[in-house]
Amino acid sequence: MLDTPDAVMAALRENDARPYGRTRTVTAEELAEAADQFEDTEIRSMALLELMEAYEFDGERTKTPVVFARVLKLWDQDPDGFSEWARHQVFWRFKWVADALKENPDVPLAAIERWHTELRDRYRGADFDLQPYYAQRYHLAAQTGVGVQDAYELWAARPRSEMSDCHACETRAAALHFIAAGDDARALDVLVPVLDGRSGCEQEPYLSQAVALLPLVRQGRLDEARSCHLSGYRYARGKVAMQAAIGRHLEFCALTGNEPRGLELLAENRDLFAYTGEPESRLAFLVGVEVLVAALAGAGHGELAVSGPAGSAWTVDTLLAHVRTEAEALAARFDARNGTDAVGDARRARLAAEPLLAEPLALGVRATAAPEVAAAPAVAPAPRREAEPEPEDFTDLVLRARELDLLGHPDGDRLWQRIAERVAAEGFTHPEDPRLGSRARLHAELVEQQAHLALERDEYAEARTGMLAAAELFEQAGLPGRALMIRARVLVVGLDEDEASGGASDGASGGGEASDEAAGEASGEGEASAGDKPGPDWPALDDALRRAEELRAAAGNAVEGGMTDDDYLIVLQSRAYAAHHDLVEALPEPSAETTARFEEAVGRYRETAAELGSARRSATSRQYTADAAARQGRLAEAVAELRDVLARLDDAELPWHTPRVLGLLGQVLLQSGEWAQAAEVFHRALAEVSRWGDDSYPYAPTYMMLGHACMQTGDAGGAVRALSEAAARFDRQRGGAVEEAAQVRLQLADVLRATDRTGDAVAVLESVLLDAGAAGLDVRLLAQARLDLARGLADLEEYRDAAEEYLRLADVVAGWEDQETHTMVACEATVTLAHAGRWDAAEAALARARQAHECSPQVDQLAGTLRELAKLTVREQGPDGLDAALARIAEADAVAETAARLGQEHTDWYLRGASHYERGRCLAIVDRHEEALAELELAIPAYEKGGDQAEAPRAEAVRLAAVIEGGDLGRTKAAVARLTAAIARCEAAGLPDAVRILTDLRGRFAE
User: Fold this and answer.
1) Cα gap 712→295, rounded to integer Å
2) Using CA atoms in the order 83, 85, 86, 87, what is the torsion angle rounded to 10 degrees?
3) CA distance linking residue 429 with residue 442, whole number of Å
4) Which of 796, 805, 854 is closest to 828 using CA atoms?
5) Using one digit for the tens of pLDDT, what is the confidence trace for 648-687?
6) How far apart are CA 113 and CA 782, in angstroms?
7) Across-strand partners of 306?
């Protein structure tokens, strides 16, 4: 019942603790009405100010001037009835009203000017500086486009004052000024204290992160742009007060080739279409939507279904027409009010912006919306070399394509595509040219080419069917050697289809680069089980070789009737590939027969390639040898072999074959612990394959391994870039590589958390778990993702959300045989629930932890949980909670004693020291300082029993003892002496951070 002032005041306090949104706003309206029944200026003013704040942050800013008029009326009638806080808010919110009037095109310009005058006069009357007045004058000038620079200088030249907007918000406004002037570099310099966390407020740094997105991209600072998007959008998502920022994130996605991500953001924020209470912010949101859908329409996706205002089904085209109409009309209303074209011009400038990058910027998060949009970059990458020319003469075109096939040149596919187009064209006539051969031969070659493309897509069934059809056509065309070669290849197609794409495809296709199995191994897939699928058909492979030799003996290497050298080598390669497969499957202890077969098949392939002068095939054979050596631990041998292969390819002028050799060399170096060399080799491999445009190259595993190498060298930025790109590449693989992409994203999140970019890490992990395909992921991978997410949320102090993740995870792992995980999760959930203030739920989680501990003891963790609960209890309840807190610590001691009695694994010295330390801290919190110091005096020697590993916790115990001794008990000399001895000990132990902390504390006491 809201029938007393105290009841209303209590309800106001309760409402103030709610997050901004519809519930808080409706409640504020009810409380303002309830407060009106009392002749109490303080209650009525507080209720109105709460209502004004609710409107301000719930997308209904246009309502704030009316509420403030009531506040101002109360102020003019009874200023003494306002509390000190409310008095300050009255003058502070003059600026809110100025913003609300400016942002509503229905408010005449003259009315805004009058309000500015009112603000100035009120501030003068209250003896406040006029810097906020000049700030409002600038904000209006920035919107109208009239006298912008003069207004900026009048504002920026004045020092900040008591009523100035928060430092972060003013910093953002200054940055926007420089962005509008085309000076991105200066804008970003201005934003530094906000973006690095030194300055912030309720909505900062998130608004500034949105502002910085495009300037960062234009300045080439892509890592920072990615980070600003991940953490900035995560905060802004779904918030009406952040709709302008969400518009900037949509625009960023459109201009960095991330349209699928933009569509997901659009779906997550479709409710914003219903909010019209902040016209200027709405316009910023609508223009962001307009940029995104215009880009999609321009790319030919007009019929694609997208999210839009509720109540209708939308396509790109229909949504574009809708938002364009509204945005154009809204901008025109502002310009009509202002008497200028500035707002419309700003909208048109955003719409005219071209994509900023040649290829999509990898963001690290999974975007599953509209996969057809993500199939190709928005802008084709710039060519790194001059492409092979296409002869105009059809016969010359086919002959050149055949030559390129023989060399394994990546441009061969493009020429074959052009040949197919010309053959399919109306009126095509097959030239009668003996160099070209029969139409039947050409038809067989085109069918074979389509089978090659299926192999590159890892569509093995389609490839087998196509290859067998091509073999039959070659047979009919009088080319038995070519037919036999293809049938030999079919025998090994898909042997390693569980591995990363590349290895099986190349080995089976006869393309010549056979060792992308290494990439599969690096992604955790190189040891596929042989139990569920058949191995190579060796009788058929041996028969193919016998028939090949018979053909060559009878008709030599003639194309028609015989078997060419390269076709013969491909038969040998198929056998070598099969032998390599068998060897890998048999590791780590292959039989003598398997090893002998591998050595025979690969050795014969290698020797014959050398005899026939095929540098390309010789390189492939040596890759098999190097890969086998690496897998068997002979890493130096593998490195030497691969470096020699690279040299020989260079001598043979076959540079397009080097990327795959470099990829395998990089992996071997990675296995050897040569991190820096591995990173350099991976970079070179990716640069070379980009130059040659080999679409079949296993980009995703290579980027993943590059990320691992960068992690090991301490190059966190390089690791983030590489792992983000790897995840994006796995996403774009035909058929999807959801599991691989999720694994990479977990690694990416680890790097981000380790570099204090927890918000980014949480965004990445959320994208894994919220993905529609997450249910199909391995249950342990999902569990790890949820655990990492829960820990990240806890690090961000989003304890309620963290607790929800922990509880979901606890339900999942409760049925696992290894209950250690259940114990761990229940313990972490307990602490998080306590941080969130959900004490009953924390007790339930603790009971669950105790139960799991009985099955699978986790002594150190359970004891640590109990100690942490003790600390939180006494901080929450003060002296009233001390007995409960001490009981928690006693239970932790009992857990340790039981472990010692039963021989359970635990860290005795740490558990004893930590209990004394925590008991001392709890006693200190409730001002029982002598008892607290006595406990810490016991903690210090207890820690010493742990040896060198105990020096850090011992130093912390000394620090707290000194704080109590010197600060609370006033015994500064004793504290200084204690610290001096501890500093020397920490210096000897190599603990520079502890030395710095203890030295600073000693200095304060010495003064």
Assistant:
1) 39
2) 80
3) 12
4) 805
5) 999 889 988 999 999 999 999 999 999 999 999 999 999 8
6) 58
7) 314
Collapsed DSSP state (helix, strand, coil) of residue 714: coil
| Residue 389 DSSP label | P
Alpha carbon 867 to chain centroid, angstroms: 34
Amino acid in position 123? Y
Q: What is the DSSP string of 338-388?
A: HTSSHHHHHHHHHHHPPPS-SSPPP-SS---S-TTGGGS-SSPPPPSSPPP
* Range in 12-26, 395-409, 810-824, 968-982 with the lowest mean pLDDT: 810-824
Rounded to whole angstroms, the Cα distance separating 44 from 53 reads 14
Tell which residue, 29, 41, 30, has the closest CA to residue 5: 41
Measure the CA–CA gap between 81 and 66, rounded to whole angstroms.
21
> Residue 943's closest CA among 959, 923, 957?
957
DSSP-based three-state secondary structure for 299: coil
What digits encode the pLDDT tens for the residues 839-881?
999 999 999 999 999 988 999 999 999 999 999 999 999 999 9
* Alpha-carbon gap, residue 360 to 373, rounded angstroms: 12
Q: Is the pLDDT of residue 533 over 70?
A: no
The DSSP code sequence of 574-599 is HHHHHHHHHHHHHTTS--HHHHHHHH
Amino acid at 271: D
Helices then strands, each counted (H, E), the chain: 46, 2
The tokens describing 705, both together, are 């391994």
Residues 699, 730: Cα–Cα separation, whole Å: 9
CB 379 within 8 A of CB 355: yes
- The total of other beta-carbon atoms located within 10 Å of residue 26's CB is 13
Residues 6+ away with beta carbon under 8 Å from 371: 260
pLDDT 10s digits, 295-320: 999 999 999 999 999 989 999 999 99
Q: 528 pLDDT band (50/70/90 cuts)?
A: very low
Non-local (6+) Cβ contacts of 721 within 8 A are 222, 223, 362
Q: How far apart are CA 750 and CA 707, in angstroms?
A: 12
Two tokens, residue 473: 């056509």
Q: For 187-224, b where at least 16 C-beta lie within 10 A, e where not — what string?
A: bbebbeebbeeebbeebbbbbbbbbbbbbbbbeebbbb
CB contact at 8 A, 526 and 520: yes
Token pair, residue 338, equals: 């202002």
| Biggest CA pair distance of the chain | 115
Q: How far is it, in rounded angstroms, from Cα 935 to Cα 942?
A: 11
Task: Give the list of residues 6+ apart from residue 649 with CB closer than 8 angstroms, or none.
Answer: 615, 619, 655, 657, 658, 661
**Are the CB atoms for 648 and 611 separated by under 8 Å?**
no
pLDDT at 385 (0 to 100):
59
Q: How many residues does the chain have?
A: 1007
Whose tokens are 């930025």? That residue is: 717
Give SS3 for 314.
strand
Given a contact cutoff of 8 angstroms between Cβ atoms, the answer to whether 649 and 403 are in contact is no
**Bond from prior residue into 205 cis (ω within 30 degrees of 0):** yes
442-449 own/partner pairs: CB under 8 Å, 24+ apart: 442/398, 443/473, 443/477, 444/470, 444/473, 444/474, 444/476, 444/477, 444/479, 444/482, 445/402, 445/416, 445/470, 446/416, 446/419, 446/420, 447/473, 448/474, 448/486, 449/413, 449/416, 449/420
Q: Are 208 and 231 in contact (CB under 8 A)?
A: no
Q: What is the pTM (predicted TM-score) of this model?
A: 0.80
